[in-house]
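BUG: 3D viewer hangs when loading the predicted structure for this chain

Environment: internal workstation, default settings.
Expected: structure renders.
Actual: progress bar stalls at 90%.

Input used:
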Amino acid sequence: MSIRVDIGWLLATGLLSLRVAAATMLAPVFGPAQIPGTARVLLTLALSAMLVAALPAAAAPAINSVPGLTAAALGELIIGAGLSFDF
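Structure tokens produced before the viewer hung:
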């Protein structure tokens, strides 16, 4: 038995989960007192997986290096933090 995982989907889900995690961590609605950390992590991963599944395949990021992945991750964190201030 083997499990096949699409690396592009995994990368897109990971990057999107950084954006969603930053938004939920900094948003007052999802603050640390209201929702436990485990529930926030599960909510973040589930929401990210559903959003990536809804995206077209061409929207997956093409990252070929560690500095590119680092820059993409930092960009996702900044966008997520910016979205949390809009609440």
